Amino acid sequence: MVNVYKSFGSREVLKNICLDVRRGEILSVIGPSGAGKTTLLKLMNLLLNPDRGKIFFDGVDTDVDEKQRRALRRKMGMVFQHPALFDTTVFNNVALGLMIRGFHKEEIEKRVEDALRYVGLKGFAKRKASSLSAGEAQRVSLARALVLEPKLLLLDEPTANLDPGNALQIEETIRRVNSERGGHGRSCYT
């Protein structure tokens, strides 16, 4: 990210931001509410375009057509502060991205089972998402991102409003993912 600016109307939210997240790095962005942390993550995830400046992902300029932007976004995972789960099973929520990408049934089942075990929710696949606690729902949201094996994992206050046990589980999962993937991925928290 080089010299990035972002405004909403007359309110300048980000000004001259330069940021480099390297492979294997876990980066936390800290600031008060309204400081632009979520806007920064949405720019990094290509959900928003900067008003000025450049954003690169794996050395590729992201100022490209929408089809190419979608291809770049498929290499990223995003976990929002408030998980948006579908009113179906935990399995279907975690498997959605794999289904959209056309993975075979056997691969989907293996990856979902592994992702749920990774976030401490082994045995939850058949549960309805609507029956989950806030912490469990956030862990399902994290599993949904991890199952796609993203090169860049963006987390927008993933432990906000969670009990200490669920917050610790999420933090430990992020550290373990980073460690076990041998520095092949990147993570950015707000």
Q: Structural class of the helix and strand makeup? A: alpha/beta
Strand order of the largest sheet: 3-9-8-7
Poorly predicted sequence stretches spanning 5 or more consecutive residues: none
Number of domains: 1
Q: What is the N-to-C order of secondary-structure elements (H for helix, E for strand)?
A: EEEHEEEHEHHHEHE
Arithmetic mean of pLDDT: 92
CATH topology: Rossmann fold
Instruction: State the separation between the terminal residues, measured CA to CA.
Output: 16 Å
Based on the coordinates given, report the CATH architecture. Answer: 3-Layer(aba) Sandwich
The CATH superfamily is P-loop containing nucleotide triphosphate hydrolases
Shape: globular
What proportion of the residues is helical, as a percent range?
25-40%
Main sheet record? 4 strands, parallel
> Helical segment tally?
6
CATH class: Alpha Beta
Number of strands: 9
Beta-strand portion reads 15-25%
Radius of gyration, in Å, reads 17 Å
